[in-house]
Amino acid sequence: MIRNVLTIAGSDPSGGAGVQADLKAFAANGVYGLAAITALTAQNTQGVSGVELIAPSFVKAQIAAVFADVRIDAVKVGMIATSEIAVAVAQALSNHQDIPIVLDPVMVAKGGAPLLQDDAMEALRVSLLPLATVLTPNLPEAARLLNRREAATRDAMAAHARDLSDLGPNVTLVKGGHLNGDQSPDVLWDGIHLHWFEAARMQTRNTHGTGCSLSSAIAAQLAKGLVPSAAVAAAKQYISGAIAAADLLTVGRGNGPVHHFYSLWKEKT
Question: Is the pTM of this model over 0.90?
Answer without folding.
Answer: yes
